[in-house]
Amino acid sequence: MTPLERRLLNEVQKDFPLQIRPFRSLGKRLGISEKRCISLLGALTERGILRAIKPVFAWKKLGFESVLVGMEVDDSSVTAVADVVGRAPGVTHNYLRKGPLNLWFTFTCESKRDASHFVKAVRALPGVKRCRKFPSLAIYKIGLVLDV
Amino acid sequence: MSRRARKAERLLASVLSAPLPLAAEPFAVAAERLGMSQQGVVDALAGLIRRGVVRRVAGILKHDKAGFRSNAMVAFLVPPRLCKKAGAAAAAFPFVTHCYWRKSYPDWPYTLYAMVHAKSKTELKRNIASLKAAVQGKDMLVLPTVKEFKKTSFDSRASL
Hints:
Oligomer: heterodimer
CATH class of the largest domain in chain B: Alpha Beta
CATH topology of the largest domain in chain A: Alpha-Beta Plaits
CATH architecture of the largest domain in chain A: 2-Layer Sandwich
Low-confidence stretches of chain B: none
Strand order of the largest sheet of chain B: 3-4-2-5
Low-confidence stretches of chain A: none
Helix content of chain B: 25-40%
Radius of gyration of chain A: 20 Å
Structural class of chain B: alpha+beta
Largest sheet of chain A: 4 strands, antiparallel
């Protein structure tokens, strides 16, 4: 990445202008044209560095439920289980981790009951030894801002 | 909030939660879909931010592609009454992107969770050490990221 690309990524993560032509203001901050700003962001997207520019919703405020689930799965089954879990549209994050619980996913859905149903179904998959819900009791940071 | 109002808000959310097109007027698509002016969309977003329904409008990185190749979820045993203070201390680190107090169990006593990102294994170790010193948990469990199977954003369209 060039220094300009890094500055652009740091800016776009923090303070995206809420205006009809946001890329003009964003470009101005960096001393580049709107057109150049858009093409640089397009290239960063194509390279897979920038996932998207979008509003980040607090889904719970709209009545959705969200829960983190940690599972203990046999090494030989973990890819198959991750595959089944990942196919559910409500699963937004799904990670293999080193530790006593090795497969972790987040599930967003309509209600606590839906979440419990899903966890029950997942717990019954072959190779799953433990499956626990870790709902959040307080949020201290959802920053996502990384200093590139 | 009435059912109808909630439904209308969810419809708005499902349109607005799509990635913005990289075009001079990125809100034009949503404006057309919602039958609003572009300024109307911008104002609606500002309203949602004020009410905390939208956390922010921002670029989201693929952290591994952006150079953050070493990542871990770190869970601390912090007594509930100290979680707020410890959470604030953890949140202050720029390398911590997410921090939550979560439900614990008798056989899983961890309460405070932080996502830690770094550009190398050495840096990750250093970050975790700084975090540990600031949080002062009674116990700590490091769960390094081995593989990302899925990372996406919630799509509420299925629930409309």
